[in-house]
Amino acid sequence: MKTQKKYWKGLEELHNDPEFVENAGKEFAEYVPVDEFVGDKKTLEDSSTSRRDFLKFLGFSVTAASLAACETPVTKAIPYVIKPEEIVPGMANYYASTYYDGNDYASVLVKTREGRPIKIEGNKLSKISQGGVNARINASVLSLYDGNRLKNPLKGGNKSSFEEVDKEIKSKLSDIASKGGKVRLLTHSIISPSTKQLIEEFGNAFGAAEGNFKHVQYDAVSYSAMLTANRKSFGKQVIPSYYFDKAKVIVSLSADFLANWISPIQYAADYAKTRKPENKWMSKHYQVESNMSLTGSNADVRIPVKPSEYGAFLVELANEVAAKTGGQKLPAAKSAYEKSVKKIAHDLVEAKGHSIVLSGINDENIQLLVNKINSDLGNYNHTIDLNKPVYLKQSITAEVEALVYELEKGHVDAVFIQGVNPLYSLPKKLADKFKAGLAKAKLSVSFATYNDETAQACQYVTPDNHYLES
Predict the structure, then answer these.
(1) Most buried of 203, 253, 417, 437, CB within 10 angstroms?
(2) What CATH number should be reported for the domain whose range is 154-221+395-463?
(3) Angstrom distance (rounded) from CA 456 to CA 155
(4) d(CA 24, CA 1)
(5) φ and ψ at 303, to 5 degrees?
(6) pTM of the predicted structure, to 2 decimals
(7) What confidence tens digit (pLDDT) does each residue in 288-311 have?
(8) Burial of 10 per CB tally in 10 Å (0-12, 13-18, 19+)
């Protein structure tokens, strides 16, 4: 018969030392004065135990009792019947994807384990985002597992099935189309060519040529003033590309381009290239704003200006630049920022053709002034390129207001809303009119991730896919 091996914790146990034998029966390494801890049995007085020891023993007792009452959960592992080649348990897979939610954009790598996304990283092969992501994009993987996401379609605020909702929507939509009714689709700015093609095909099926169908793009943070100003100045209703890596002087009027203005991930990467002391030259950055921003905190010179004085500041800057470049001057009174304006204008002219002037103010007149200054400096086709437009923001305020007016008058028969929540983000007066108009429509459908304010006002709500879901 095979002899069973015997093991000892140490030489003390092997030799059975008296000290070891004494300590083996102790639950605690140190002496616990139970009698002193309890004190008098009736009154609990004369106890010499400190408050720290009392809490320590109390915590141990409560924890021990709780653990004794708990049952260890049973975890079952179900293996693949036919294991996919690309999946190895414990080994991560990476997939290239694109993140765009109407605000942030980046090319990303999605880290997955057994088919479940667990982390978002930047794709370093992208020439736009250049491997960068921000905190919002990093955290976007959490929303995939959010328990508050819609799991079922809703009909009149109550749970329904996809079959029932699809059947009723198709029936109502067919009836509206047969009578030549008006159908409207409201989304955030669409940048996907495939999605645009699908929207075009959908519109053609419901009378887009006759004006019965219209796609309206709505951005909660509007850049409509820049789009319309560029159309008036250059005949192109687009947002241009900005090359911060080529700009020797940057003047930003309340544009937080390192945090949330248009494409901050791309701009931050380009901006950082010109801020290194070992380079032949470094960019000079002026930030004109009222409140401190991330971009303002990184500027070489930050000039606090009241929002009510933005216009006067820009007019004076435009005149200073025009005086030095031979451009047309504008009528204006002297402002309180004359010294700062002259210094900025001098630096801009010194870097003529290698500077950028931009503004984050959604005011058409402000944007027209910015266009004039950049034109006088010869920045277009050098640091600003209208021939390579950015399509991240395409919403026109007038088109959104026109849709609200149509809904309010009861001229829209069917409205589909995807990825936006106008009842939350529109100004209150417009939001109230929009809500009243939704109630007048024969069919209102929201494609939403959550049962938000707009979804609650629609007849039907269908769960929208997460960008990490196929």
Answers:
(1) 417
(2) 3.40.50.740
(3) 10
(4) 32
(5) -115, 110
(6) 0.81
(7) 999 999 999 999 999 999 999 999
(8) exposed
